[in-house]
Amino acid sequence: MTDVIAFGSKQITYEIKYVDRKSLGITVTPEMQVIVKVPPETSLALIREKVHKRAPWIIKQLSYFLSFHPRRTERTYVSGETHLYMGRQYLLKVILSEGQQGVKYRGRYIEVHTKEKAKAKDLLLAWYRERADHKFKEIAAPLIQRFKSFHEGPSAIQLREMPSRWGSCTPKGKIILNPELIMAPKRCIEYVIIHELCHLLHPHHNQAFFELQTLLLPDWEKWKLRLEQLLA
Question: Which of 175, 184, 196, 204 is the most exposed place for a label (fewest CB within 10 A)?
Answer without folding.
Answer: 204
